[in-house]
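Q: My labmate handed me this sequence with no annotations at all. I'd like to see what the chain might look like in three dimensions before we decide whether it's worth expressing. Could you predict it?
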Amino acid sequence: AKNSHNNLMGESVLARIFAPTIVGWSSRAVNTDTHLEESPKQIECMNTMISLPETFWRSILERPKPINQC
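A: Here is what I predict for the chain of 70 residues:
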């Protein structure tokens, strides 16, 4: 989303594309009703995750690795 001026893919487009894969479905067998009911929720969740500040994601990704204890 930070480079949307270059790739023309804003946050809402990215959320719509990645939500089914990252957020997922409530069951393995997704029928039409499930798809229609859960898609907006997935997109809303993904939009929220995309809008979190970069510092939030860095704090998760750059945590020190635990020291293995014997």
